[in-house]
Specification:
The structure is a homodimer. Chain A is α/β, with parallel strands linked by helices. Chain A has 13 helices and 18 strands. Helices cover about 30% and strands about 25% of the residues of chain A. In chain A, helix 1 packs across helix 3 and helix 12 crosses helix 13.
């Protein structure tokens, strides 16, 4: 008998690398840039950047915050890192000391601030609003730009609202807006419109630079067809205890599950403190690899901070120390997200922030 | 004009200390122990342990995993740390090298493992099952214990399923089970049944040791009456951009919000990557402190990884660089959790894992 207490997060770097290369091929006329914000969607920006820099010659990266760019800039002197949230008083010093960082300027006011603190010759990127109504210059702000202002920029970019819905009217609408803005204000700039989802919408969306994020991490950003990406994330947690429920017994906080008959349950050492969405209470699934193949068990009762409880009555073979698989290639984070009522991006970001997991990078 | 890009998590250690002391007073005949698992519910175990050890003479702590106990054991040699997930092959060495760690043994099998590796004289705690049906010895396992086995333990504990519902039948049911088990198997052991919620259920539930967690962090664990605890967590994020929406315009991913008329929106630099539940999309609220007092604005469209978008049409005064307050004393994490369809424990745990936030401890 083996007993384990800690969950394991496996990150398959080979698959991640393959995904990056496939996406690069699909957008072969565009420069690829790797999106590693939010600690590479939680999977570890350091490991992902090392991989892509050394094994795929990646030199362009996108992060959200300047503090996320700093370790990349310090390690790789010929990398260029675009910072999507731009610049403010709380990040000015990082930008001033690290010429590889490029702020993505999203508003007229931010541009004024940048011009006040940047050294001559430093370039920025400009985000323009085309329909998402998030960060980005609106038309009235673009009209105010002088030709000197326009010289501040090396890249013009925007972001799609509905790129994961192939036929959504917003895609063409945003593309048209983007083309108009480019033509009118930035005819010579490098242009970027597509993140992972936009890559699959064709060459017109790929423009000059594509920002490869979610799909690289294995998320299906083109859910209107089967996932072309390989799975990157596996989450598993050990069975700490197995016991029997009598008919009528309750399980978990607030007694939300009651056994309609005799059940066998497994207590698994992972919970929402580890990033398992609490919305999987009484809904989520785990899987066990047995002699019969992959067998499914249901999460019963509330997900708690450190544990979930699973109904393993119908699992043919189970013992303490067995591994409950919460996500893997046969039930991906996309599948888990569907059950949890959210998107895999959110779950990945949470799981990856875990410091109690044992984290294994497969290479 | 000021521009900021990073959100701020403020943790009021004075209030946390006050809460601990209030709880200690309520359970004045029991020994207090501080629950600092999951990095002190995300708020930073190091800061919380330092505070409670030095300013409240706390010497007993509970964590979930041995790796969480290690830094406490190394820093405070007279602290005793109970490890709720118990011991396994992946944590045995930590237990062997750190005599201050006490595994909470939850099953017969785990007891055998512990006996095989522990040095003579080391004591454990035993978790017994009284109705939660999570980790813990069941009756058939208790019956197998020899008197030598029983000598392995210094503490017997269990955990309430419905302690936050004052009149739930499970409370008396579990208390009765616990008393029976104590009487029959462990008449002389120190006993612990109550976590924060159980403390409010009266002396019979408080037993010899209370485990103070959620309430100490400001969560209302007695929601059948107004919160007696002080607020500990404030979350705020800067407005990065303000712009206008025309009638018919869409906002955010999947275009889930459409303006029924002209609106003014603020883009705020925080998202689910920072721990804001994505389930607050089109539902959540933020607040601005203006000359008129605290004014409310609604999150519109989807919460994205790095940003939320708020309808500030009716906020009397707003500028770039203003702080949108997502949680604070007038709208606590409990309130946010209600809007997000979950519990504040989950949100706190997520927010606290953020590494992009500026984290401020107020003392």
């Amino acid at each position: 008998m083996s007993i384990f207490t800690r969950a394991i997060l496996e990150i398959n770097l080979n698959n991640l690398l393959d995904n990056y290369n496939v996406l690069k091929d699909i957008a072969k006329d565009a420069v690829p840039a790797a999106v590693v914000k939010d600690d590479a969607y939680g999977l570890g920006a350091e490991a992902v950047v090392d991989l892509l820099y050394n094994r795929a010659e990646a030199r362009y990266f996108f992060v959200a915050h300047a503090i996320e760019a700093l370790p990349i800039a310090q390690k790789y002197k010929d990398a260029k890192i675009f910072v999507l949230q731009g610049i403010g008083e709380d990040s000015a010093e990082i930008f001033q000391n690290n010429p590889q960082l490029v702020p993505v300027i999203g508003s007229w006011d931010m541009l004024q601030y940048w011009k006040g603190i940047r050294k001559v010759g430093r370039k920025a990127a400009i985000q323009v609003e085309t329909g998402l109504n998030r960060l980005g210059f609106r038309m009235n702000e673009l009209d105010k730009l002088s030709s000197d202002d326009k010289d501040e920029f090396e890249l013009v970019m925007s972001h799609l609202a509905c790129g994961d819905e192939k036929d959504h009217f917003m895609n063409e609408h945003q593309l048209k807006n983007f083309e108009n803005i480019k033509r009118k204000y930035f005819p010579k700039l490098t242009a970027s419109l597509a993140a992972s989802d936009g890559v699959f919408l064709g060459q017109s969306f790929q423009q000059n630079m594509v920002r490869l994020g979610a799909a690289m991490y294995g998320i299906n950003t083109a859910p209107y067809r089967p996932n072309q990406m390989k799975n990157v994330v596996t989450v598993k947690a050990p069975v700490l205890q197995i016991s029997d429920l009598a008919k009528g017994e309750f399980v978990g906080y607030s007694a939300t599950y009651r056994a309609a008959g005799k059940r066998k349950i497994a207590i698994v050492s992972i919970g929402y403190g580890d990033g398992v969405p609490r919305s999987l209470s009484n809904v989520g699934k785990v899987f066990f690899k047995t002699a019969k193949g992959v067998e499914e068990a249901r999460i019963i009762g509330r997900v708690s901070m450190d544990n979930i409880i699973c109904d393993v009555t119908n699992v043919s073979q189970i013992a303490i120390g067995d591994w409950a698989i919460l996500a893997g290639d046969f039930y991906t984070l996309d599948d888990m997200a569907r059950d949890a009522g959210t998107i895999s991006y959110e779950i990945m970001s949470r799981l990856g922030k875990n410091r109690r997991f044992e984290r294994k990078y497969l290479e």
